[in-house]
Amino acid sequence: MSRTITQTIGEAQVSIITDGATTFTPDLFPETDAAQIGALLAEAGTDQIATNFNAVLIRMGGRTILADAGPRDLFGPSCGFLAEGLAELGVAPEDVDTLLATHLHPDHVAGMITPGGAAVFPNATLHVTEADRAFWSDDAHFQRALSGIADWAKLAQAVLAAYDDRLVMARDGSEAAPGLSFMDLPGHTPGHAGWRLESAGEMLIHAGDIVHAPALQLADPTVAISFDIDMNTARDTRRQLLEEIYADKALFTGGHFLSPAFNRLKREGIGFKLVPGV
């Protein structure tokens, strides 16, 4: 089976790599009651809260850029297919010259290192926001309320260590390559970001992790997931960005959208519905 889909954006070739998939349980949405979740799933024509783990490969101007890298082997046999996806695209790890991390959660950066902590991409610089680097590097954050994600912090620190001499601190509007810029999207993590690709008059927005469960959070953007460190800010960010994408009729993608993962939005009820953009 193919694990990739490619679309031309101006002069860039953009490929979504599906590293894997899973389903969420309703308890991961603790501020939304089960009846509401059931109604949203029924409206979407499914009984599963499905999600994908996506990485994005961008080839433009002689550059080979990988945005996020999937969860590697951390989430069981249904994930960990980044290497297979890259091979399908004819790309070897040493060909990647730039890595982007939308944030340092394990399902986005575990694939950047081996189980032993070595860099998978030996020639790549790693762009990550300063706010996320600072948050995950400080063990004091992972006590009391956040003690349950201490292992996530250790993984984030291992990734930062593996690319220590090749780290680039990003901020809102900074470019990882010409036409490829970071967008602050706070709430999910302190330094959570998306990015915007502009090439030859065309544009693609990567919405990061503002949406984890498309069947729920597009139809009702107030639905929050427990992985959001600040649920209220994440809600505000999700609504604001979705409104902007809708108003601009923009093509967009994200870390957890299902195939084909290139989409536009149309308004429906209190939220939105995806319109495939392929």
Automatic annotation (TrEMBL):
The keyword Zinc applies. GO terms for molecular function: hydrolase activity; metal ion binding. Its EC number is 3.1.1.-. Keywords: Hydrolase, Metal-binding, Zinc. It comes from the Bacteria. Residues 52-256 form the Metallo-beta-lactamase domain. Pfam families: Lactamase_B. Belongs to the metallo-beta-lactamase superfamily. PANTHER family: QUORUM-QUENCHING LACTONASE YTNP-RELATED, QUORUM-QUENCHING LACTONASE YTNP-RELATED-RELATED. This is Putative quorum-quenching lactonase YtnP. The lineage of its organism: Bacteria, Pseudomonadati, Pseudomonadota, Alphaproteobacteria, Rhodobacterales. The gene is ytnP.
